[in-house]
Write the structure tokens for this entry.
Amino acid sequence: MSHYPLLLEPEDLLPRLNDDNLLIIEQSKADIYLNAHIPGAVHLDFKDLQLGEKLTPGALPSLEQLSIVFSNLGLTIDKHVIVSDDEGGGWAGRLIWVLDMIGHTRYSYLNGGIHAWLQAGLPTDQGEQAAVKSDYTVAELNHNFELKKEQIIARLGDEDFAIWDARSEKEYTGEKEISARGGHIPGAVNYEWTRGMDSERGLRINDLQEFDALLNSLGLTKDKEIATHCQTHHRSGFTYLVGKILGRNMKAYAGSWAEWGNDPSTPITTGNKA
């Protein structure tokens, strides 16, 4: 079986498109997908992998729903999944997290997604690619890749724990309120997700060596357990992914600020100070 790196460049995927063990999942907007997608890529609506409830919209749906979604996509245990989107890795990174949660560890992120693919002038297909459906069962979740609200509260202040807030600066400081309360989790550091991608290089991830140094400067080091979140664990899909690529011990807080900011009992800090 071919080896695929976690971070896969478009030019390196092109000669492997005929690999029978590949499953390319595209999470771009439907109209973008229908107009141009990687040959053989099947489309996934991000909403299919969200619980959608008011206080925890970004949590995972039931095991039954997960099984249906991945069966409809054609996932089998031997498939290597290539994830792509049209926004530089938010939805794609979240899908990586979902795959971690269901125990499917064969995956790669197409660096820059469809934007980088098009920028490189690589071939595309139009219309909808019919998936070869499978019978995939999600029997349980691996909770080692997430932290619940109560677990984060218990870890606040620990030297070997950090929080990466992927939201905008105004959401972080509390100037912009989307939930009942604004601000951030005490101790969390803010690095807004889109700052981590290069708009001139088809939304590819920024230089990895520089990104690694940046994370170290923010205290997001390899010796810490790092929780990452945004409002609904969409934007933090990107930060989860980048952290994994750079060797961090990443955990997703899927409840995110939708849960934390709407719970009157959770501690909150406002302003620029962590």
